[in-house]
Amino acid sequence: MTKRHQKNWRSFFLEGSKFKTDLYAAVFRLPSCRENATKTALLAQLFLLGCKRYPSVQALERKAEEMYGALWDISVVQKGAETLLILSAQTLRCVSKQEVISFLREIWLSPLVQEEAFKQEQVEAAKEKLLQRLALLQDDKRYAAKKSCMELLEGTPMAVCADGYPQDLDKIDGRGLYAYYQEVKERAQLLTFFCGEESEKQTAAELAKALCQEQKEMYSYDTQIKMQPQEVKYGKAEEKIAQSRMAMLFWLQAGTDYETEAANRCAVTMLGGSGDSMLFQTIREEKGLCYYVGAKMIPMANCMLAEAGIAAQDAERAQKETENTVRQLAEEKPSYTKLRQTKSMLLRQLEDAQEEQFSCLDMMVEDVLLGRSAEVQDRKRAIRKVNAAAVKRAAKQMRLSAVYLLCGQEAEQ
Amino acid sequence: MTECKTAGEQCIRYRTAAGLECICYPKREFGTKTAALAVKAGGSTLCYTANGRKRELPMGTAHFVEHMAYHKPWGDAFTTFAKQGAYANAFTDGAKTVYYFSCRKHFASNLELLLSFLQDSVFTPQDTQAEKAVIEKEIQMYEDDANWKTYFQMLRGLYPADGAGAPIAGSEASVREIETEHLYRLYWDFYVPQNAVLIVGGDISAQRIFQMAEKLEGCGEKPERIRTFTQEDEHVEQAEVLQMGLRLPVFHMGFRHVAAEAPSLMRQLSMEFAWDILAGISSDFYAEALQNGWLQDTLSYGFVQAEGYAYSFLRGQGVQYEKVSELLLRHLERLQKNGVQEAEFERIRKKRIGQVLRSLGSVNGCVMGQAELSLMGADLTEAFRLCKSMRREMVERVLQNEFTADKMVLSAAR
């Protein structure tokens, strides 16, 4: 990996000669805040609709097809206390680098604008698309339970939904959105990444230069979310569904270093990271309370999400069992064999991720945001070093912060 | 043994004495190793003959076996995969069940375990009863999945009189009917080497894998499926709109096609080209539907063929699904009348070549991509060659001959 730092942009190269594709990504760092969430989500939708050179979805797609079916996207991702607007393209290696960079540049720097405002018809179309997307997401009950659970943590960046809010859309017009776009261009730090062959490593910097314009004072970033010492929040809603969904959030021990993350990850994985995990074995296999149950870390948030699909009448039991399982891990040292298995699973996942371009990118982005070395060996070393005491300590520091239940039809019976 | 090289990638095929087809994609530059075992029995395997006897099974039997196949005389194979450092999983679709794992170490032990799925799984009445509760909860989960519900409603409309429309996991009632003997029936008849394909990718020795696979002994005869759906019974039934309290309606449009004797790669690819041209993001249909605000952009489509049935579908989200289906038929008619533009065809060819090369470029892409081709007796290198040699007239013929409005079903949920 090589780094280069120059003013408001930084570029990174990821060795990727084993892949048949090249991956280009431009990441705009935005502080996560409620007031800008919908504008950011809307910007992404707007850029997906076209630019001056490719003024429609059809024109954009035709260009992507010409580039052997390039996979390109502009998306919004929540990483801890930051929201990232990510413009990316994955193309076969035979596609010219300059062609891809110029394609991404057209999309980002030449949107459909009229007199210092985005064209109103484009904005309206983007709003419609965003509304539909939000409705679709909300119809996904697992997503809905998770989102509502996170919203219980009011006052923390966790509660901000990067997908946007339908109620904000009426207040946004082409001029206001254009002003926000200008602000993002001027103030957001730009990180560019290129994953490809060593001989092309300068491509990341070329991408940054192609996208970066004159900048003003950069946003300030507070990347880490800190644990909020507050009482557990509960939420519940009823919908017409066959299976109830439970989401529980736990704060984890704080720390951005590889060692803390590795201990947290081991604890979370032992709890609910596989079919062999404690939650799966207890709640599904032993008690037969659900079809799915699991736990995972929320990236860069020092938080664990445990979720299950259950019958409404079993919700309380499932919640208690989850808490008991966390307590059990905190009280009893994990067996040597179990810990060894968990660590080898995490190491394998890490190594597998190195063989998938988007996963490589994701890990690198987190490392850059958290100011870590971005060396895979450091991550591996931290995992290998985790011992039973560290897992116990991590489990002991898990604090239940929110519980949300989306109830189904059984609740009414 | 046959060996093919294309676009810098190698594919080695071999059939064991017992009839197990093995397909290997050696990829020295990757550390991960993935193997999949595809058994040709799925959700529509409900009625067939084996050894001269007709068998009938409750809906959901193949999927039930998928859950239970991990039960071994010595313990749980799923846990053993985990202990041996492998990530393991399985899925069942209409025509096949696929078990797979990926690992970096202990590959031989894990492969041996995977191959044992064709030999010694054990189903006890107690385990069968316990698993019913889990599967019932799985079915409940699908009940909230509008995509799943509309897809199977569409299939029931396309094949109202037979098993092709059966839900893969079955219904809560059919799962209650399943007993240990049903599981063994399907297991003994279908879980035999000559009815399965082994696919392996990564830094592996194909020779070593073939040697291991050779140890499996054949048993019984390959079962012959009875087609409960007949060519005479080709009528389709329109579906009702499901009321699911959705914020955004979800729909599937399905076309019933003439079933071929056996699935073929050429038909698969020419249908995929045809769908790209008809309804892909770059198509005029899509542009018009989007312009009118009738569609969300997460449109998808596909062509599915197996022994005895063939259908294709388009899935979308939007309030105006009826208008979308009318629009699609109008654009179909236009293409049938005017043909396909050469430039458009060449663009789609490039896209398809790109897709195959992407699959060939990763271990998981090779193995899972190959699993999808396993019923066709084809491999990814052939897919690459056929994409390159595809002719516009072939796709035009597909558009003209394969699609008719009276064989279309619209299935929606609100």
Provide the residue-averaged pLDDT of chain B.
92
Strand content of the residues of chain B, in percent? Answer: 15-25%
Q: In the CATH hierarchy, what is the class of the largest domain in chain B?
A: Alpha Beta
Name of the level-1 CATH class of the largest domain in chain A: Alpha Beta
How do the helices and strands line up, and which of them pair or pack?
The complex is a heterodimer of chains A (413) and B (414).
Chain A: E1 2-6, E2 9-15, E3 21-31, H1 34-48, H2 57-66, E4 71-79, E5 82-92, H3 97-109, H4 120-139, H5 141-151, H6 174-187, E6 189-196, H7 203-211, E7 233-238, E8 244-251, H8 258-272, H9 278-286, E9 290-298, E10 303-310, H10 315-331, H11 336-353, H12 357-369, H13 376-385, H14 388-396, E11 399-407
Parallel strand pairs in A: 2-6, 7-11
Antiparallel strand pairs in A: 1-2, 3-5, 3-6, 4-5, 8-10, 8-11, 9-10
Chain B: E1 2-6, E2 9-15, E3 21-26, E4 33-39, E5 47-50, E6 53-56, H1 61-68, E7 71-72, E8 75-76, H2 77-83, E9 87-92, E10 97-103, H3 107-115, H4 125-143, H5 146-158, H6 172-177, H7 180-190, E11 196-202, H8 206-214, E12 224-225, E13 250-256, H9 265-279, H10 284-291, E14 300-306, E15 309-317, H11 321-338, H12 342-360, H13 363-373, H14 380-389, H15 392-401, E16 408-413
Parallel strand pairs in B: 3-11
Antiparallel strand pairs in B: 1-2, 2-3, 4-10, 4-11, 5-6, 5-12, 7-8, 9-10, 13-15, 13-16, 14-15
Helix pairs in contact in B: 1-7, 9-15, 10-11, 12-14
Description:
The complex is a heterodimer of chains A (413) and B (414). Chain A contains 14 helices and eleven strands. With 413 residues, chain A is an alpha+beta fold. Chain A has two domains: 2-211, Metalloenzyme, LuxS/M16 peptidase-like (Cytochrome Bc1 Complex, Chain A, domain 1, 2-Layer Sandwich), CATH 3.30.830; 233-412, 2-Layer Sandwich (Cytochrome Bc1 Complex, Chain A, domain 1). In chain A, the strands form two sheets. A six-stranded mixed beta sheet of chain A has the order 1-2-6-3-5-4, sandwiched between helices. Mean pLDDT of chain A is 91; it is low at 1-6. Chain B is α+β, with helices and mostly antiparallel strands and 414 residues long. Chain B has two domains: 2-225, Cytochrome Bc1 Complex, Chain A, domain 1 (2-Layer Sandwich), CATH 3.30.830.10; 250-413, Metalloenzyme, LuxS/M16 peptidase-like (Cytochrome Bc1 Complex, Chain A, domain 1). Chain B has helices at residues 61-68, 77-83, 107-115, 125-143, 146-158, 172-177, 180-190, 206-214, 265-279, 284-291, 321-338, 342-360, 363-373, 380-389, 392-401; strands spanning 2-6, 9-15, 21-26, 33-39, 47-50, 53-56, 71-72, 75-76, 87-92, 97-103, 196-202, 224-225, 250-256, 300-306, 309-317, 408-413. In chain B, α10 runs antiparallel to α11 and α12 packs antiparallel against α14. The longest helix of chain B is centred in the N-terminal third of the chain and has 19 residues, at 125-143. The model of chain B has no long low-confidence stretch (mean pLDDT 92). Chains A and B meet through α2, α4, β9 and α11 of A and α2, α4, α10 and α12 of B.
